[in-house]
Structures are given as C-alpha cells and as structure tokens.
C-alpha cells in the first residue's frame, strides 16, 4: 500500500465515522457533572444516584444507545 492509498483509506474512514456515541458520552458527563454540582450545592439528591449499580446501568444505557440496542 502506497502513501496515497493510505491517505485515501484514512480519509474514507474519517468521513464515515459515527459521532453518536461521542454525543451521548458528552451528555452523560454533563448530567453526572450537573448532579454532582447540585449535590455539592446542597440539593436533595438521593444517595442511590451515585452507587455502583447506577454506574453499571448508565454504562449499559450508553452502550445500548451507541449500538441502537442491537446485538
């Protein structure tokens, strides 16, 4: 593979990428950050929001959204 073919493949992959996962990850970070800020400010955020089962549920939802809940 020469340099021109390599650049063509890289350009093709870059143009066909899917940014939905990045948007959802950004949204999750904003939501978690907002909840942490609200909790630090004295808002009544339930304790179960920051437990490890909720982290697993959040990861599962993120992966499901990223793959369109397929396979």
Question: How would you describe this structure in keywords?
Answer:
71 residues; mainly alpha; elongated
Question: Can you characterise this structure?
Answer:
- The protein starts with a helix and ends in a 5-residue tail after the last helix.
- The protein is built from 3 helices and no strands.
- The chain has helices spanning 3-15, 20-40, 52-66.
- It is mostly helical and 71 residues long.
Averaged pLDDT, please? 82
Largest sheet: none
> Which outline best applies?
elongated
Number of helices: 3
Instruction: Describe the oligomeric state of these chains in a short phrase.
Output: single chain
Helix/sheet category: mainly alpha
Q: Rg, please?
A: 19 Å
Total number of β-strand segments? 0
> How much helicity do the residues have?
55-70%
Strand content: under 5%
N- to C-terminal distance: 34 Å
Low-confidence stretches: none
Helix/strand order, N-terminal first? HHH
